[in-house]
Amino acid sequence: MDLRFNMFANELGAKFSKRLYGVSTVIEQSSLPKETQYLVMTRASQINGCAFCVDYHTKDAAADGMSAVRLNLVAVWRESTVFTEAERAALALAEEGTRLADAHLGVSDETWEQVRKHYDDDQLAALVALVAMINAANRLNVILRNQGGAYEPGMFSGLSS
């Protein structure tokens, strides 16, 4: 399966991609814990079948020191003991916010209550934006058939400039 289209080789595609990455940088620099960000991005990417994003975010997480155990258990977080209550709330929000077509009610009140219990307003804004942004990135990469496996941590440094 080959890449269908290289967004960076197209002037408009490159402008869009740089701006999307710039928005992601705002989230990355927020007070939302970095490990929570990696968990959310990885889980949404798993659900969406985005091999490129799973590769990207798990490699960056490992390079930043996240344990292999936590990375390997993201897909089965409900049945795992290695995640905090706050991380579980974020993962539930990521799943419900990603599976909108599967859950006609969207994010449940119960999940929203748990997220509000663990995150302040700035962290909540970052978390909601993160779920939206990773889903957008997943969809772009899946549509274009951008494959996983070749990502090297840090290879997109300076992209937003």
How would you describe the overall organization of this protein?
This protein has about 160 residues and is mainly alpha-helical. The protein has a domain at about 35-145: AhpD-like (Up-down Bundle). Helices cover about 60% and strands about 0% of the residues. The protein contains seven helices and no strands. The chain has helices at about 10-30, 35-50, 50-65, 70, 85-100, 110-120, 120-145. Helix 5 crosses helix 6 (about 110-120). The termini are far apart. The mean pLDDT is about 95.
Question: What attributes does this structure have?
Answer:
161 residues; mainly alpha; AhpD-like; Carboxymuconolactone decarboxylase family protein; CMD-like
Question: What's this entry about, in short?
Answer:
The protein has helices spanning 11-28, 34-48, 51-63, 68-72, 85-98, 109-118, 121-144.
Q: CATH homologous superfamily name of the domain at 33-144? A: AhpD-like
In which range does the helix fraction lie? 55-70%
**Rounded to an integer, what's the Rg over CA atoms?**
15 Å
Number of strands: 0
Q: What is the succession of H and E elements?
A: HHHHHHH
Which stretches are low in confidence, meaning pLDDT under 50 for 5 or more residues running? none
Note the total helix count: 7
Report the end-to-end length measured between terminal Cα atoms: 31 Å
Overall average residue pLDDT: 93
**Shape, per Cα inertia axes:** globular
So what's the oligomer here?
Answer: single chain
Biggest sheet character: none
> What fold name stands as the CATH topology of the domain at 33-144?
AhpD-like
The secondary structure category is mainly alpha
Organism: Nonomuraea monospora
Protein name: Carboxymuconolactone decarboxylase family protein
Domain Carboxymuconolactone decarboxylase-like: 26-96
InterPro entries: AhpD-like, AhpD_core, CMD-like
